[in-house]
Amino acid sequence: MKDSLRIGIFYGTSSGNTRQVAGxxxxxxxxxxxxVDVEFAKVSDIExxxxxxxxxxxxxxxxxxxxxGKYLILTKKVNxxxxxxxFFGLGDQRNYPECYQDGMGILYEHFKDKARxxxxxxxxxxxxxxxxxxxxxxxxxxxxxxxxxxxxxxxRIKQWCALxxxxxxxxxxx
Length: 174
Ligand SMILES: Cc1cc2nc3c(=O)[nH]c(=O)nc-3n(C[C@H](O)[C@H](O)[C@H](O)COP(=O)(O)O)c2cc1C
Prior knowledge:
- The chain is an alpha/beta fold.
- The chain has one domain (7-168): Flavodoxin domain (Rossmann fold, 3-Layer(aba) Sandwich), CATH 3.40.50.
- It is 28% helix and 23% strand.
- α1 links the parallel β1 and β2.
- Bound molecules: flavin mononucleotide.
- Flavin mononucleotide (FMN) binds at residues 13-18, 57-62, 65, 90-92, 96, 99-102, 146-147.
- Flavin mononucleotide binds at residues 13-18, 57-62, 65, 90-92, 96, 99-102, 146-147.
């Protein structure tokens, strides 16, 4: 990954978990990664970065986090054709197995045709029945479960950051 690459980690959080994970991802990617809280983000903030990492938790029964709901409306028409995007999500697979990580799936649906997408993540090691964030046997981004599997978070982030670095260094996506 080039040192000059500007990475923006945009996160939406309601009780702080996604902010915490965004911070860990930033630490994993180095000082070129900047954190942006979607609650206060403007559409023009997106333009400052080459690579965008979008993170959301899931609320209700399969809803995207509240601040993202508003930001998705704002970013409907934004031109992202020169950008690379990766996603991460926070969810609770034990209590919400039928809509696990749906918020991340909603972000993906919104942005998937607008930019190059990287950072798909295997879903085998998770237990859930349904998710809008799954295509085949892959999540559309990194799935984190701080409610049930917080002990796995650090290693998952480490592996995912390595994956992003690899994919940024090649043109290859799945
Ligand atoms: C009322 C409520 C509804 C939730 N709904 C879902 C859901 O539909 N799917 C899911 O995967 N997780 C769901 N969760 C779990 C949260 O996404 C999870 O706790 C997450 O870590 C919260 O992150 P945040 O503090 O960044 O908002 C829900 C949690 C609560 C308290």
